[in-house]
Amino acid sequence: MAQEPTCRECGAKLGPDVAEGICPACALRAALLPAPNERLVPDPTLPAETTIHYFGDYELLAEIGRGGMGVVYRARQTKLNRPVALKLILAGRLASEADVKRFQQEAQAAANLQHPNIVAVHEVGRHEGQHYYSMDLVGGRSLAELVRPQPLPAREAARYLKTVADAVHYAHQHGTLHRDLKPTNILIDGRDEPRITDFGLARCEHFDSHLTTTGQLLGTPAFMSPEQAQAQPEALGPASDLYSLGAVLYYLLTQRPPFAAESLPALLDQVVHEEPVSPRALNPSVPRDLETICLKCLQKDPAHRFGSAQDLSDELGRFCNGQPILSRPPGLAERTWRWCARNRAVAGSLAAVLVVLVAGTVVSTREAIRARAEAAKSQQIARFLQDMLKGVGPSVALGRDTKLLHEILNKTAGRIGRELKNQPEVEAALWSTVGNVYEQIGEYDRAEQALHAAIALKTASPGKEDAQLAALLGNLGTVLERKGSLAEAEILHRRALAIQERVLGPANPEVAQSLSHIGNVLFRQGKFAEAEPYYRKSLELSRKVDGPRSLSVAMALGNLGNLLGRRNQLEESEKMFREALGLQKELLGPDDPTVAKTLSNLGITLDALGNTAEAEECLRESVALRRKILPPDHPDLAFSLNNLGATLQHRGKYAEAELAHREALAIRRRRLSNEHPDVAFSLNNLAEALQAQDKLVEAETAYREAVAIRRKAPGLDPAYLVQSLVGLGGTLVAERKLTAAQDVYDESLAILKELPGDRDKDVAAVEKDLALVLTAEDNLTEAESLQREELALRRKLLQKQSPPLPASVSGFADACSRLTRTLIAESKFSEAESLAREGLAFGEKHLPDDWQTFNARSLLGASLAGQKKFADAEPLLLSGYEGLKQREHSIPDEHKSRLSEVIQRIVRLYEATGRPELAKQWREKMQPAKEKAK
Amino acid sequence: MSLSDHMRRLAPPNVEQFVTTHWSIVLAARDSDSPAARAALEQLCRTYWYPLYAFVRRQGYSPAEAEDLNQAFFERVFEKQYFADVDQSKGRFRGFLRAALKHFLSNDRDRARAIKRGGGIPPLDLDGLTTEERYRLEPADTLTPDRLFDRGWALTVVESAVTRMRQEYADAGKREIYEHLKFQLPGASTTGESYVQIAARLDKTESAIKSEASRLRDRFRFFVRAEIQETVAGVADIDEEIRYLLEVLSLGTVG
Question: Which of A897, B2, B40, B228 would be B25's cystine partner, CB 3.0–4.6 Å?
Fold first, then answer.
């Protein structure tokens, strides 16, 4: 590669993208000199070496400094022949007439200040449009220069600052604020006394000007109070100067201002939102009391600073005299809490990071012998994390934006291995923290990597089968569970449990948690019966060790609620969820992710209970909450969306359901993987919603993808595969692809029959669909035999249930009716008659007011008519029709054609018995019925 | 008359006086529906598409996504969706655009994604390097999006000034002089021929070349300032904006 061009003027490396190979910085700098034809005022930036420059009464001798506001010259006031410092305000600094007026007033007030430690202002004025003021010329260096080689000794710094505070107090009493106290504004004169310059003058121009400070990397804003950084002029007061004094002290002690950032906006954000690193962390020789004084000045809330500059001066005096100071340092926990309070959005996720900070100090006080090592460790972690928090800045901590967090985490991950060599304990602790935070924001791959790293470090050191390792294993298990690696997850949770039971004993909250996790993994694999004892044990244990009103109890209740819901114990499930929800809202507040999860699960149960309206409400709440508190695209949001979609579907709102499923699917594809079992769930649900809207081609595609994923998913209950296959079959039937549908159903039956456990209901459902396909293909013999099998299974199901479930009752009645129709179509009328009698008797007993029962009546009539028993048949056919007609609205869409079938039977009866007039009348009724059936 | 014509005809000596700039036209027309304001805004957006693009890319979007987002963002700007952000911009187009873009990215991202290209307002046809090529040329940096934005802004300012100056010399039939003397511009990375050599080559006296060089530097300062003036509310803000951009650039080399 060609050598990178460098600027001939400033030596900067120029990127390949700069125009004409021109250094943009030098170009801009040159443009600061106004172009010749716009030079309306004497140019104060002209180099002084060429000619002698006069400015009014002043002869300019040399430039001694420049800032955002203007240039300061060493000058000679010719009339009085005295050396002065002359400050010329740059053009444009006083933007409006009001600014000019204010500048003049302030300058006048400053000129009235007579204090040995305040540089006196001699004259304020305007010459040829240029504003200026002149001051005493103070030889010597500024505090900034004084500190450059090394920080000041604490006592010396305190002494200077006490003097400065006295002078500031004097000015405050005269109604003048400085507004821009900083090391470069405090000069040390020949008598080693500090003198403050620019009193009241620095900030007369409109506020925005701090953006223009040139030269120094850290500029003035680094010493500015939060109320100034937020441009709240009404909030400015003496306390703002006190803040700046604290910042100056900080600088004297540490050689850096309290905040440093790569850009001004970031710096201002830090000033407003972050806590400074403690001076002692940067310079351990700083006495604790002086640090306390310094940090008290730097409080964000002006009310928490010293009451006046005098109070500060008194406190510094006490420090210098070796007397006890009156201020108390804020604890680490308090500072952490404050940070969180200001950054609420990220605080939830950051809590984990900060726990390390706090926990570190607790450990160090508990164990005296290891105290020193632990203290070093926790301090290192603390500084490390604080560094990172500094580097990132909370400017992005708005709403649910997690960029800040990502940045912190990525930075940490990048630094851990590099900077913590030979400290496996610390390194493991940090990896663990990072992994857990990644998990919380749904970054499962990164979480997995971090946790693996932590586990590797823990297991590398001998004899470390401890509770920490168990916790790491458990956390990794949870991550793998989220990623869909259920078998691996189960192994990890079981390993964690074994260690915990050995190290912590059986009655321990962590044991309860591992039990829950194992239950979860089993649950996800569809092993509901196996999961239950784990959940129950976990609940029992949590009640014992954490008390009945605890979060762990709520969690266990929630898990059991899921399980019971899945096992159709719906009322009990609802009860558990509601209890869990109550506890969580009470203990965590309404805006917690856990609350969103429980709402989502409660929604499923309510939906299964048929209470779909409440389910919808509940799920919408869950979706809204997760949208509010989670980062966008969080995988958990997909759960709520998925469940909401399902309920919307049950309520017939297919288009809305489609949208919900599409969003859930998109999230899962982005955040999980294309092969994740949850992707298949979304695809399957989406396909159902599409099918319901007759979008058959799309539905088929979605089902096929779901089938493909589920065929390959290890550890997944094959019943899920069957679910997708059956759905696909339904779509294929609707598309009239009957042969393909038959293949799909055949495969489903084959899978189901291989499966252990009671699959009767599923087998019956598939047999029903397959028989319908066979019927459509006119293969009545095979259809009949399948329907007989199906009916037998449904009879068995009914016998096992007491009282029978409504779905089983209706399923049996339906199966009877379908087989009867097949038998009639095969002209097996007497077999049809006996089955129809059974169906009708069953219906009149269990479903006396249901359309199916009247359909059964009509079917019995048809079987009798087939045997030419017309007299018996006629009243049955007619009353069957009447009953069906009255209940027309309750007939589901897919059965609407029953009504026209019933009419057709009556027509045939009248034709067979030679009553063409009646047959004609009835035939006419059929037309509208057929229309409706469509 | 196109706006760039308008720019070229700005009489240099009056530049500090009552000149309407693109941004001041836009500001003045905030509440009305002036075609001139739209044209001015469009001109600005065309010029400053690159910092926007870099900013968006830095947020982690793919090149295609970033282009779409940029396009959608411009459409929003043209619909005047973000004029509320003007108040936070302290009168700068840069500040406005950055605030508006952040606003857009945080609030309207999802809707923006849904906007299909070509719907509604025709897409801007951006000139120059294709966006991604240029982005890749950026030093692989640790700049924050804000800084990357401002740095891209600074580069764009200088580049626009160079382009306009080159055009001016070409229009005046002085392309040769420009090509020989551009190495005398402040911050040039290459040493060109000496004045004597150039004088010999162009058949002019050395002092004539010297004064041409000095004129070139003056014009360059003028164009940089004019370029910046286009994006601020008033002449009084030019210096401040330059200082700010300088600071951004100096931070870039430190970071």
Answer: B40
Asked if the Cβ–Cβ distance from A28 to B90 is below 8 Å, we say no
Q: pLDDT for A428-481, tens place per residue?
A: 777 777 777 677 667 788 889 888 888 888 887 666 568 888 888 999 998 998
Is the model's pLDDT at A27 over the cut of 80?
yes
State how far the Cα of A390 lies from the Cα of A259, in Å rounded to an integer.
8
Domain total for chain B? 1
Which residues in chain B are contacts of A22 at CB distance < 8 A? 158, 162, 185-189
CATH: 1.10.3710.10, 3.30.70.580, 1.25.40.10, 3.40.50.620. Which one for A806-934?
A: 1.25.40.10
Structure tokens at A749: 């039956």
pTM over 0.80: no
pLDDT (tens, 9 = 90+) of chain B, 255 residues, equals: 333 322 222 222 222 233 455 676 666 666 556 677 777 777 777 777 777 776 776 666 666 777 777 777 777 777 766 665 565 556 677 777 777 777 777 665 554 444 333 322 333 333 333 334 444 333 334 456 677 677 778 888 888 888 888 888 888 888 888 888 888 887 777 777 888 888 888 888 888 888 888 888 888 888 888 888 777 766 677 888 888 888 777 664 332
Cβ-contact A881, A865 below 8 angstroms? no
Q: What residue in A sits closest to B244 (Cα-Cα)?
A: A212
Please, where in chain A does CATH 3.30.200.20 lie?
53-136
**Residue A27 near residue B220 (C-beta atoms within 8 A):** yes
Contact (CB<8Å) B15/A5: no
Amino acid at B255: G
Closest alpha carbon to A489 in A524, A458, A465: A524
Query: What is the predicted pLDDT for the residue at A540?
Result: 92
- A32 CB neighbours in chain B (<8 A) are 239, 242-243, 246
CB-nearest to A21 from B59, B189, B238 is B189
CATH of A53-136, one of 1.10.287.1770, 1.10.220.110, 3.90.78.10, 3.30.200.20: 3.30.200.20
What B122-127 contacts at long range (C-beta under 8 Å, 24+ apart), as own/partner pairs, is B123/B71, B124/B42, B124/B45, B124/B46, B124/B49, B124/B71, B124/B74, B126/B46, B126/B49, B127/B46
Could A33 and B162 be called an inter-chain contact, meaning their C-beta atoms sit closer than 8 Å?
no
Instruction: Report domain A682-800's class.
Output: mainly alpha
Q: Which residue of B has its CA nearest to A401?
A: B106
CB contact under 8 A, B186 and A217: no
The distance of Cα A489 from the centroid of its chain, to the nearest Å, equals 24
**In terms of Cα–Cα distance, which of A927, A847, A924, A922 is closest to A887?**
A847
A414 CB neighbours in chain B (<8 A) are none
Instruction: Over range A789-815, report the average pLDDT.
Output: 86
Token pair for A486: 């259920």
Contact yes or no for A92 and B236 at CB 8 A = yes
Would you say B91 and B232 are in contact if contact means Cβ atoms under 8 Å apart?
Answer: yes
Which residue range is the domain that position B246 belongs to?
Answer: 3-254
Q: What is the pLDDT of residues A775-786, one digit of tens each?
A: 888 899 999 999
CB contact under 8 A, B189 and A26: no
Query: Cβ A36–B154 below 8 Å, yes or no?
Result: no
Q: CB-CB: which of B159, B225, B240 is closest to A92?
A: B240
Question: Where do the CATH 1.25.40.10 domains begin and end in chain A?
Answer: 682-800, 806-934
Q: What is the pLDDT of residue A524?
A: 81
Instruction: Give the closest-approach CA distance of B162 to chain A in angstroms.
Output: 7
- 3-state SS class at A826: coil
Residues linked to residue A74 through DSSP beta bridges, in sequence order: A62, A85
Which residue, among A96, A94, A77, A95, has the nearest Cα to A85 in the 3D structure?
A77
